[in-house]
């Protein structure tokens, strides 16, 4: 209710500040009996952690996760899973100056207006560092969804600044620091090098996809699957726009084009992006997000201080010239958390996908395959 | 939790189906002591109701709202406000044929997969008719926010299909059936006439704005103001994309351009769209949404029936060739409900905008004006 | 959040006032596909409705329920079930006098302090009349739990005032106006007749039981099954105490006596009242509640008015001399709503009772019988 | 939703197991700007911690609390306050034997039925050790309520086993290990010594009181203040009964006696226990709870193992012969958390106690004193 818990049935409560002793989260509602260890979570944390290339912030954080509770003899017990990540490379002296200033494009002013007090060290609570616990929680959701329904999540960068990045193959994504689906990223590297020299920052556009989706996930009026996806994505630091399926392109489409035809072997297209009436069709979830350029740049900007006096703000500290670069694993994690939440909601009201009333022996199982594809038989 | 209640502190529980006896909602959490009668709600309902021009569905519904509870001697009591709207012009015979078919682009298939049963009459629960109670609830929120903070909500259509509609003045919006901010809508009329002749439908793009926003509304990590706006907008029937402020244009912006400079007399620009770090800046909320073309068209479409057999679907019944036309008051209402929710949350945790700890006499009042503008003094 | 919705996954939103045009509720989260009609709900409403004997209020309300939504061709669709009950026998003139007075033992003063305004007609929102929609919602929960798990709910009166009522058989409960489990209620009738002559009121103690409980329902730390039962029972008008199992008697018990021994064929006793560690054991839920004497009596009482001036209050209108008499079906309904909520929560996190991870075909079914009894094999 | 978060606006998410590396909680929604340090929390933790007398478990835990987030330069920031308590004196070898057995009166069996897996070390999640983080969170709520409204919380033991403890003075409570309000506890010491020799355990009855309550806190139908108190108290380990005000004694009272008369200078009595219609009257909250005898005793008990085979269970490990002895600070904390939640809810919907619509300058302040007493002027 106060904006630090994501989800309800699979509820992730996030805590910490960028320069506090530690950050972390508590996952409540994880189904019991799933094998889980830090090794299931660390890889996704490593994908988003800082300091891995010259194109991202040079803050060096191992982001090593520790499971404090909820796992016994290697299996989830169904009780809260507390995850702790120590902060190790704070440099708070960098921020003393801006404690009384409002950085343009930052949350400094709004936190001041909301709370009357803020932790300015590294952006405090508003830092993108707080996405790390969500990536960790997302890894838990991903593992359960993969085992239960075969659902997989992946994302890539499609635009960096005004540069469109083509799509060659998902296989390239892990092989470059941009999560770009192309083999040759030399152009992107040159672009980023020039940007850093200009002491400026740029935006990015990402694509996030879920495959192997069960059909029937989502709610009728509110908490629609696409509404919750929009909520999750727009909640990621710096995101300013969200599209599902055809997105804004659907404005200029005709109904005869947009509406995805159906055939006995499946859908003929996916303008819907895997959601109709707020409920999953079983097709891939197709999501695109717009990420604004980093506000923290060393170019001087005109602003005011807490007394309303004009000041010139030069943001020191270590920052990402394009926050979009590290956002792919974050967006994947948030999408996984949304699907996880709705999978549990579906079990609550309707039983396992395809279950009838009353739940008949085996019925759920025999129906399940149906839930996992877009075929209608 | 099951997708039919919007909001938590100002919670609107929506019920009904397109062709049931009635639709309505229950508003829980409305502050007590506000003058309220049907006359405060009906005008917004009239703005969205069908049958008002040849460009929208010819279903004729008065959409007369009745207050069943929560108001005593003309003032809200703080207890639930139940609003009832009778359905009067159902023609369910139109839908008998598609009870066993899945209309492309519709929720027929997903409801079938989720619930194993659906009410096919007029789209049942998935009909845009269920937005009427939200418009009614939004009118209550609008009235309270106007009285408490001077906040106002308005919207207009900026694109219909591939046609861009310029912006001349808000004054034109009430004077044409498209909610277009231009004096001459003859081109739009001709466009819609041609579209109907082609038995097709088109999408639209809308802009929604809140002015007189208090600063400090929104939550830090989740339930960010922009995240909740995205959730509310994407939840409106047929919406496929949401932008806040610069939106997708921010991808190609530089940080030196995007970050809104601050001066003692206010912000220099509003690329943020009135939200920084998920919290309102006090500037106008600027939201844009993409609405897909209506799926219900009389052009035959290939689909399948509940047994997976191929069928040709021709959607009869009465439908909007562009659902975007009537969506403006809906989007305004949803935006008002989001702001209302966050205004109450802010009072809960931080007291009236600007209140300190402990709440000092008069302090809230002397601070309030500050909360209502983008100035910093 | 504002105190008018009960439950989360099976959420019942209650609205209306004692003398408004109508009262009702919206049930959100009911599993789809269950046969449901007014005939399933009316019998429980008839058990609690007023005017059925000389020992209860003479207000004559048919309490006829109408289903407005959520049911299609006789089956629940999984969308909100709106239930409406018209008020027909209001006599608001009876209450004009006490609009500015605070009746001792009533909510008049507290509503005034909370909201600064109240609907005084028949107690407005604080009237026990608002339990009718809960009885209706409880009937829906009862039907689902009976079909799904074989769970049954029943209650009886065990004390009226200082009179202890013995227990002979559940069979007697429907045969007398007191819900007393005894054949001869002449003593109770005489007791009530004398009480009315004395223009006074008395309290009562009720017992409520659930049989055929699945084991494993409830949460570990909060939302424990017994905690939610206490919440539900204490929330019933006039309830001042709640016990589970041995209740207050457990204070003087020894651990060697209280702890229910277990044998291969089941538990040796039920001091726990069917709950251990907040989770159901599969034994009967055993609940007892204390109901205070009706505050509305015609004996003059000293009080104050809204200006703080002393007044003598004589409560006119029609009231129950013992609200406990009609409370049995209410308590049953609230217990059913608690169990329903937890049954759906259990399905969400752990699947059907006994389901493993991942949910294996048939496993749920083969385990289910286990869930339905206290045997351990 | 999964039973590990208490409250909504002041939400405390609890994690950990008795023998895990650490336990703790995350407080979300704490008002900003309050001075807070570990020194504000530790004293209440010290009041409940084990090993402080021969009458309680000899497990020796310092229960030193660490604030991980949400406090900057000694003041709350309004963001989540994470509290961590390390476990230091686990002796898990004590529990190996009962990993496959169900201890009578314990949660072993129900956790097994619910989750299909449990952490048997020290009772795992079901251990009363998990009340420590709630005591810590309660200390934060107590501090805010004291500063904002002058509300204070205190409790004492009124019965231990069949021994009634008289009431002499609150001053005695801190001076003996039983939280008994009497000067001479030699009888209680003798009683407990005999009980330990008998290798048995006993129950207890506690009284918990809140003074300086604002009037108007609580909700109309559900989330009534007394309902939430019952929920909070019944959720404490081993609690089997809850009373508000006259409690079960009200069954035998007459309405002419029970209903608390009102005079210009205040209420004439407090049978209501400070709550009418679910909303606080401003009088003291009066709560009584029944605590069952500890289930962990060294006397052999008949039970079954996970395969349903009969076994003799002898519970080793270190346990409290009367869990009620350490329960007083726990009950105080839970009561404080309930009042805190409702104080924030009241601010959300109605503004500070007494605030009108629209909130007028100073009005809240001039009204506040009214909210803090039971006088009506």
Could you explain the architecture of this structure?
Chains A, B, C, D: NADP(+) binds at residues 48, 54. Chains A, B, C, D: It is an enzyme of class 4 (lyase). Four copies of one chain form a homotetramer. The first copy, chain A, is α+β, with helices and mostly antiparallel strands and 377 residues long. Chain A has a single domain (5-350), classed as Chorismate synthase AroC (Chorismate synthase, AroC fold, 4-Layer Sandwich). In chain A, 25% of the residues lie in helices and 20% in strands. Chain A has eight helices and 18 strands. Chain A has helices at 38-48, 108-115, 132-149, 186-197, 225-234, 255-258, 328-350, 363-371, and strands at residues 5-6, 11-16, 22-28, 65-67, 71-72, 75-76, 81-86, 152-160, 163-164, 204-211, 239-244, 262-263, 266-267, 275-276, 279-280, 285-291, 301-304, 310-313. A five-stranded antiparallel sheet of chain A has the order 1-2-3-7-4, with helices on one face. A five-stranded antiparallel sheet of chain A has the order 9-8-10-16-11. In chain A, helix 1 crosses helix 3 (132-149) and helix 5 (225-234) runs antiparallel to helix 7. Chain A is globular and about 65 Å long. The B-C interface holds B 1-5, 8-9, 11, 13-17, 20-24, 26, 28-29, 32-33, 68-70, 72, 75-82, 114-119, 124-125 and C 1-5, 8-9, 11, 13-17, 20-24, 26, 28-29, 32-33, 68-70, 72, 75, 77-82, 114-119, 124-125. Strand 11 (239-244) of chain C pairs antiparallel with strand 11 (239-244) of chain D, so a sheet runs across the interface.
